[in-house]
From TrEMBL:
One of its GO terms (molecular function) is hydrolase activity. It comes from Calidifontibacter indicus. It comes from the Bacteria. Signal peptide: none annotated. Coiled coil: none annotated. Keywords: Hydrolase. This is Phosphohistidine phosphatase.
Length: 167
């Protein structure tokens, strides 16, 4: 039997409005920094520490994770992967399946609509939350996974907790 794994899916915190910068370079708004720190505090309070982090290369996701670390003190190894930016749920699954089998808790920091759609697919039939409608910025879904990372597929996770970081 496979040991229980934990997957923490995080949609980046509130970013600055679209402007003259390319979307990939948009940074967090002040509120986003506060909200991400609150995510970190909440994860710490709940005893959730990442063993490994997959993070989009976009500025707002990198800054989200940095602020989460400020709030939690978590110093897990981070892989900033370009594939996560603007990724489909299928691509996000492919990335997650590359996680080392010895890793127990993985965080993925990404974007909508990919992250909410992935949460919905992984918990297919196992959760009552409508992730497409309720996964706002700074949204977090904590999933329990009973398969190897390489075997992660739709319907293989259960929703353990969901919250929105607001600081």
């Amino acid at each position: 039997m496979t040991a229980q794994r934990t997957l923490i899916l995080i949609r980046h915190a509130k970013a600055e409005p679209h402007g003259s910068r390319p979307d990939h370079e948009r940074e967090l708004a002040e509120r986003g920094v506060r909200d991400a720190r609150e995510i970190g505090r909440r994860l710490k309070a709940d005893g959730l520490r990442a063993d490994f982090v997959w993070c989009s290369t976009a500025a707002r996701t990198r800054e989200t994770w940095a602020a989460i670390v400020e709030g939690s003190g978590d110093g897990a190894l981070v892989d900033h992967d370009r594939r996560i930016y603007d990724a489909s749920p299928r691509t996000l699954l492919e990335v997650l399946r590359e996680t080392d089998a010895n890793i127990g808790t993985v965080v993925l920091v990404g974007h909508a609509p990919g992250v909410p759609a992935l949460a919905a697919a992984l918990t297919e039939g196992n959760a009552t939350t409508d992730f497409a409608d309720h996964f706002v910025t700074s949204g977090v879904a904590v999933l329990g996974v009973d398969v190897e990372w390489a075997d992660l597929a739709p319907g293989t996770a259960d929703l353990v907790a969901a919250f929105v970081g607001r600081g």
